[in-house]
Amino acid sequence: MSADDDAPDPIEDAATRWAIEQDAGLSDDGIAALEQWLGSDPRHPPAFEKARAAWRFMGHPAIRSEVTQRRLSEPPLPGYPPVGRPEGKRKWIAPAVAASVALLVAGAIGDWPTALRSDAMTATGEQRTMTLADGSQVQLNTDSAISIDYQPDRRIVHVLKGEAAFSVARDPRRPFSVEAKGGSTTALGTRFIVDRHADRTQITVTLHSVRVAAPGAGASIAIVKEGQSVRYDRNGVGSVRTVDANAVSAWTRKRLVFVDQPLRAVVAELNRYHPGYIGIIGTDLGNRRVSGIFRTDNPVAALDTLQASLKLASIRLTDRVIFIHD
After folding, report:
1. 125 closest CA partner among 258, 23, 251
2. Confidence (pLDDT) at 155
3. In terms of DSSP bridges, do strands 277-280 and 321-325 run parallel, antiparallel, or are they unpaired?
4. Are 68 and 93 members of one domain?
5. Residue 176's pLDDT is what?
6. Which of 86, 173, 212, 281 is the most buried (most CB within 10 A)?
7. What is the pLDDT of residue 91?
């Protein structure tokens, strides 16, 4: 798990700041500052249009009004121009870009390109277990997809996105391999988890061993045994390390286990299971250490537990969009 994988993009952050500022009404200085920002980088205009579309999608009047009123009721942040009302004060919750985009993608567009390529797929917060033709089992985690390519002499499953746990039926005549982002994991009579991220893939073995191969400048092959994990990316296969496989596989039992993790990493993981967005206001708060066990099928209840144990408050724009703060 890595909070960095789910961290908001700074350009999208700024774009949604401006989209909501424009919706609330910009002063002359604000309009000039927006135009300057749009012209300062060719990536800014498309990001701004995407943010405007996302904000419109979120656009239940009560939600939009509450965000705007909260923003106008607090002292202005340094470095940002005032909004249209000269007397207005504001506070912007930076991670709202992730909320807007997540809601737009999950609620309106969906991942149709992946859906067309997949043989099995889960939505956000959904988990699914399926038995393949050879008796092997695959458990898909939230927002995951696979395609299946069984041939007379081989068995291949492609992880198109997300995370999947495999329990492989033995068949010496037909090797079982899982492919993701150019790499391949071949079962040696085993149970293992493949977690595909945007920039890397992580393999964790919970029983017996696997052979992991990937092209790149680094090591190209590694044997990973029970209780071990390895990552590969465009640079090749990394170093094999010992992990708590029981904790890594906890999601297969609808649990998430955290031991002395920063709150931002915990919230990033909860966001994988929440059909909306959970954000943190404040860098220092995101660094606070957390240990606990939470259920994957009720991320809002997990957040309630975190709030109570850490004595935090929250802003809830319905249970779909939640910001926690001191």
Report:
1. 251
2. 96
3. parallel
4. yes
5. 97
6. 212
7. 43
- Domain of 100? 3-109
**Domain identity same for 71 and 20:** yes
Longest dimension (CA), the chain: 76
Amino acid (one-letter) located at 90: R
Identity of the residue numbered 256: L
Question: DSSP assignment, residue 294?
Answer: E
Amino acid type, 77: L
Alpha-carbon 80 to chain mean position:
29
Q: Is residue 93 part of a domain?
A: yes
What DSSP line would sit under 7-71, residue for residue?
A: PPPHHHHHHHHHHHHHHH-B-HHHHHHHHHHHHT-TTHHHHHHHHHHHHHHT--HHHHHHHHHHH
- Same domain for 239 and 284? no
Q: How far is CA 289 from CA 39, 266, 292, 315, in A?
A: 40, 9, 10, 21
Contacts of 61 by beta carbon, 8 Å cutoff, 6+ apart = none
Report pLDDT for 128.
95
DSSP string, 88-130: ------TTHHHHHHHHHIIIII--HHHHHH-SEE--TT--EEE
β-pairing, 176-180 with 154-167?
Answer: parallel
Q: What residues of the chain score a pLDDT lower than 50? A: 1-8, 59-95, 97-102, 104-109
Residue 218 CB contacts under 8 Å (≥ 6 apart), including other chains: 235, 236, 237, 238
pTM, rounded to two decimals: 0.68
Distance from C-alpha of 124 to C-alpha of 138, rounded to nearest angstrom: 17
Terminal Cα distance for the chain, rounded: 24
Which domain CATH number covers 180?
Answer: 2.60.120.1440
Q: For residue range 43-81, what is the model confidence (pLDDT) as tens digits? A: 888 888 877 766 665 544 444 444 444 444 444 433 444
Q: Given this model, what pLDDT does residue 108 score?
A: 44
Q: Which residues contact 257 (CB under 8 A, 6 or more apart)?
A: 244, 246, 247, 250, 293
Structure token digits, residue 259: 């031991």
